[in-house]
Amino acid sequence: MDLVEIPTVPLHPQEDARQATLDALAILDTPPDREFDAITNAAARLFGCKIALVSLVDRDRQWFKSRCGLDTSETGRDVAFCQHVIALDRPLVVPDATKDVRFAMNPLVTDGPKIRFYAGIPLRVVRPDNNGARYPVGTLCIIDDKQHDFGSEQLAQLSELAGVIEALLDVRLAEQAARKLGEAQRRALDSLDVMQRLFRQAERMAKLGSWRLPLSTRRVQWSAETYAIHALTPADSESVERAIEFYAPYERHKIAGALERAIEDGTPYDLELDFTDATGKAKRVRCLGELEMRDDEPVALVGVIQDVTERWMMEQQLRQLANTDELTRLASRSAFNTYIDDQIGHDGPLALLLIDLDNFKTVNDRCGHAAGDDLLRLMASRLQAPYLAGSFAARLGGDEFVMVLTAPEALDNLDHLLARLLGNLHHRMRDAGGSIHTGATIGAARLIAGENRSALMARADAALYRAKAAGRGCAVVAGAEECVIPPADRTTHLRAVG
């Protein structure tokens, strides 16, 4: 078979405007962001692909703002699948790249990472100086080294994830514009007409309103968009006291203090606060303020307020996604790491339990992975029983769980609690081959003063190893000579650890 050259891909019809939009984002070669990483990780899991990328197509390269399952940070634009998405400005699905003349001889197909399947959605961003036109600056794509059947439903799901990324990029562009507006304001305080024109552009672009508080009147003047954020009809001015009442009661001291410091010593502020508009609708707003000087004398406070509710809610959802185990709905490993470090930092007493399920592989082998998933969910529910109230449970991965006990009653009666927990985690399943008894083996360790997470985990892991060596289905506390077993009569039984 004769070798064929990689077909040349045309540029986007408005390549200069597209590239200018990407440049305006100022995002190339920036550090990773957890919001983008959460989406690529979720996309890889959702579609069962080894690789998921947020790819931004530059002049002669594609650079990855977020990458899941790929080590390299960029490739040449000439070999990029995503370049085809940019040129077409529409989604692209390649079920098998080895059978597609556009990609069969591509080095990314013939060599690492040996792409077989590709699906990409264009990421379009509004160029602020071009009447709201949107240009594709990159893609959200998923890649695998085996063929996939990818239907319209999956394409719609991938498009929804791409929409989240577009919103994040829009927010970034708006914040870039707001920052530039603030810089322009400082350079041209004596040109009110210019400042008002810039703020009007920002308001139309990003729910961004402006305000000015003359120190002589203490009545704040709002732009039309600022009134819209407050859900009020525009008026001549509002009192400072009335303006502060729109913030949540627990936030008012923050904004009031920031205003006073700005007036007293010129300290600028940048706050993000909870807010309720005149209709009672809860919002999240970002507010900036600084002192306006004329002839070296302070004359007013000036600033902007932005409704960031959608972005904030998106961040909360992504944070929840990152901190929750998808299968069991317990805390994730990363959430556990944050929690245990915080608890250790408070120097209070605690005990760490490493929990390893027994016979889990047997369940998977004999009953199937769906039954294994059901068992994991059942064990997770039992780790949240009422008698464990106040404890923290997380899934570390596979059939491994962890608990942190801080309640005095639990710590004072640790052996009794372990025996009860072992009994509660015992479960019998039936299949065509008979019964399968599942349960747990536990290694526990009490926190020692000055100990860090790694040392505490290591001692609990050593105790777990001893418990497994003692025959499984029991618990060992680090430093103890005996192991805890779950008796039928509900009393705590101890036996020597060999």
Description:
With 498 residues, the protein is an alpha+beta fold. It is built from 16 helices and 20 strands. The strands form 3 sheets. Strands 13, 14, 15, 16, 17, 18, 19 and 20 form an 8-stranded mixed β-sheet that branches. A 6-stranded antiparallel β-sheet has the order 3-2-1-6-5-4, with helices on both faces. A 6-stranded antiparallel β-sheet has the order 9-8-7-12-11-10, with helices on both faces. InterPro entries: GAF, GAF-like_dom_sf, GGDEF_dom, Nucleotide_cyclase, PAS-assoc_C, PAS-like_dom_sf, Rev_trsase/Diguanyl_cyclase. It comes from Sphingomonas crocodyli. It holds the Pfam family GGDEF.
Named at the architecture level, the CATH assignment of the largest domain is 2-Layer Sandwich
Total number of distinct structural domains: 3
Tell me, briefly, the overall form.
flat
- Rg is 29 Å
Average pLDDT value?
Answer: 88
CATH topology of the largest domain: Alpha-Beta Plaits
Task: Describe the secondary-structure layout.
Blueprint lengths: L14 H11 L8 H14 L3 E7 L3 E8 L5 E3 L4 H8 L3 E3 L12 H4 L6 E10 L7 E11 L7 H36 L4 H15 L1 E7 L4 E4 L1 H7 L7 E2 H5 L7 H14 L3 E8 L5 E13 L2 E11 L1 H15 L9 H13 L5 E8 L1 H8 L1 H14 L9 E6 L2 E6 L2 H5 L1 H12 L1 E5 L2 E13 L6 H17 L5 E3 L4 E4 L7 E4 L2
Parallel strand pairs: 17-18
Antiparallel strand pairs: 1-2, 1-6, 2-3, 4-5, 5-6, 7-8, 7-12, 8-9, 10-11, 11-12, 13-15, 13-17, 14-15, 16-17, 18-19, 19-20
Protein name: Sensor domain-containing diguanylate cyclase
InterPro entries: GAF (IPR003018), GAF-like_dom_sf (IPR029016), GGDEF_dom (IPR000160), Nucleotide_cyclase (IPR029787), PAS-assoc_C (IPR000700), PAS-like_dom_sf (IPR035965), Rev_trsase/Diguanyl_cyclase (IPR043128)
Pfam family, one: GGDEF
